[in-house]
Task: inverse folding
């Protein structure tokens, strides 16, 4: 029997999805599972996107242009211009989700064995994309005590070698929800220019920013024309995760043309998703105002309830719809599995994502979890009550076992 | 300015799509361009697939399971069983087009630097996928004089080294339309087992087989349980290229689980496409009978007209909707560009795909083109008339230039 590849062996199972069998078992026993482990919003997709699909009028579902449907690219370019991102229709490439945009960027810009610096904790699937591209991730650790702020410049400089080719950030961050300040972004810009690196910025949570603040795109940083690749996606913006539509944006013509060759190889992004996405661009600002206010209220409520649980520590995130909390347990993954396998409070339990999968430094985040506030306030309240009782029960169980 | 990756530099522009700017220019001058270069069928998508999309009733477009929607996998499994392919719902992975299935297979089974043997000419994008995966393609040349039959066993054995990890075939073949016989497939099986290799079989044109013959799947070959990965797609079957829905099938549990990790990293295949694909499975046999009879009649007509043009040689393909023809020119790419840039017959011209992009052996196929018979008989007739006049005019132009 022929053997599996080394990359295949090294690919991690998703830390977000690997507890799914335990949750399925809990549900099949009749328990309610509050699912805070995954960023699948419960927010409705804008009606005009759904209507565009329902009135799809072509009789052949054809390939689109490899870079995406022209009219969609034109309108999407206008959306970016409105966001202070000076990107023309020929400087953006429609991709199959943000995932594909990251892969295209890595494949086009980094060689096998090159190093990619990422502040950790970071979106766990970056590890999978790096393995796919044969790239080595070099982490710079952000700390819960600092609310996961950008580590200082010298922490980056200490990690830069002859192999360093790029820095990847996610702003606002999945999993921490941290929103970078202008000053932090300017620091990143200086490092990138000083060492002639690429900067990859995952800005898919751009719209989800709280406390009246405004998201600053890396495109607003001066002098990065040849260095910057921005990754985008409509999955969260319009609650259309299943449409699998993202985008790659760059002003670097050589990077664009190279990414386009990878795009041509897979022929085209999904046609239906593009049709829905094009229509979704007409979504009124009132939709986002409502959604942002809903998430902000959920965030306040969840973080407040979390910090009321003895021994739990959770910073207040500035954006996205995630937060990373420290729990009073030794090993958060063991606790998460126990919650699904063994625990019930009024026949309910909670599913969380162990945070260790969002770090690459060994033993980091071992007592942390990521929570997505993608359930309404009432459910969040019940979930936090469950979690509080679960933590208490778990400590007693551990005590008895000793 | 940071540099592009080596893989990015090596990625070829699509030989199928790289003449597009010339065709656009011709059209903008008001010329009719008969497009035989690309496998975009003019056949209608089955109505029930379109209706499923128009009655999409969910209010949130959610991620699906990373392996694909469960109900779709169950029904798709039944379709395969019906085709003598014993594949259960947990032995198939829904992918974003057949393209992604090939990438998953290469990434999961081959290391950087491993060798993949492919009979050439082959689907040009295999080169792009091999570069992406860091795999070296080793060609075994099939010849137009033999109708592009499978090269003899010793031609394969001569290419096998310690680095050889897999053989990839496409049956029926894009670009040649060749349909492998049972005897040829058994020969491949013997090589695969003797050298403990993977066999990747791209069977996306399974339904398009002519002259009353039947397609034989590699799953019908005994003893390949641990060796075989089949790539599939609905793009051509239901004329749904833009849906971007394919599948990867394997009975090798380790390969399946490894591919699933790559699938989890990109979260899920497109939801809309899966909904349309699930509905399309109910397409009655009469649809295929009509489509196959239409293609067969086009094939007969086109190959007949091609062979009537002085100096043109074209075998009769047994399947798919492509054929590779030899033209009486030195360089087919120069001729194809000339046809778009310089030539008109009654204000019409023809767009073909130069075949050299489907070979990796230097100078092979330099006077060959691939033609897709994706236009109706009337248009094919006009296109062949155009081509005949074009070839005649081209020879005069070259003669004058000498």
Result:
């Amino acid at each position: 029997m022929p053997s599996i590849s080394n990359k295949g062996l090294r690919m991690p199972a998703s830390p977000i999805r690997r507890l799914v069998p335990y949750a399925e078992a809990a549900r099949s026993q009749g328990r309610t599972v509050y699912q805070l482990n995954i960023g699948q919003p419960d927010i409705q997709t804008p009606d005009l996107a759904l209507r565009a699909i329902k009135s799809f009028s072509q009789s052949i579902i054809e390939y689109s242009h490899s870079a995406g449907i022209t009219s969609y690219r034109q309108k999407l370019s206008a959306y970016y211009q409105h966001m202070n991102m000076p990107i023309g229709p020929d400087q953006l490439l429609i991709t199959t989700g943000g995932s594909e945009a990251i892969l295209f960027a890595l494949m086009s810009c980094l060689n096998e064995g090159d190093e990619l610096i990422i502040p950790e904790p970071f979106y766990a699937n970056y590890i999978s994309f790096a393995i796919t591209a044969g790239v080595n991730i070099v982490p710079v650790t952000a700390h819960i005590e600092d609310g996961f702020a950008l580590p200082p410049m010298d922490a980056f400089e200490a990690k830069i070698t002859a192999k360093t080719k790029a820095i990847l950030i996610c702003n606002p961050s999945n999993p921490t929800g941290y929103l970078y300040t202008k000053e932090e972004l300017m620091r990143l810009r200086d490092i990138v220019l000083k060492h002639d690196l690429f900067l990859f910025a995952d800005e898919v949570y751009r719209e989800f920013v709280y406390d009246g603040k405004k998201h600053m795109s890396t495109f607003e940083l001066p002098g990065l024309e040849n260095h910057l690749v921005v990754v985008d996606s409509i999955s969260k913006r319009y609650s259309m995760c299943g449409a699998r539509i993202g985008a790659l944006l760059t002003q670097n013509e050589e990077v664009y043309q190279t990414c386009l060759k990878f795009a041509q190889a897979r022929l085209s992004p999904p046609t239906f998703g593009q049709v829905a996405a094009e229509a979704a661009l007409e979504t009124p600002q009132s939709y986002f105002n409502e959604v942002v206010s809903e998430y902000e209220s959920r965030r306040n409520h969840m973080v407040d309830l979390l910090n009321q649980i003895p021994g739990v520590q959770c910073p207040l995130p500035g954006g996205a719809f995630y937060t990373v909390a420290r729990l009073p347990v030794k090993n958060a993954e063991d606790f998460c599995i126990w919650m699904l396998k063994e625990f019930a409070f009024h026949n309910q339990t909670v599913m969380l994502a162990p945070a260790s999968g969002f770090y690459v430094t060994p033993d980091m985040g071992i007592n942390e979890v990521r929570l997505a506030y993608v359930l309404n306030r009432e459910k969040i309240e019940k979930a936090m009550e469950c979690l509080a009782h679960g933590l208490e029960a778990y400590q007693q169980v551990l005590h008895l076992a000793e």
Q: What stands out?
A: Chain A has 13 helices and twelve strands. The longest strand of chain A covers residues 164-170. Chain A has a mean pLDDT of 96.
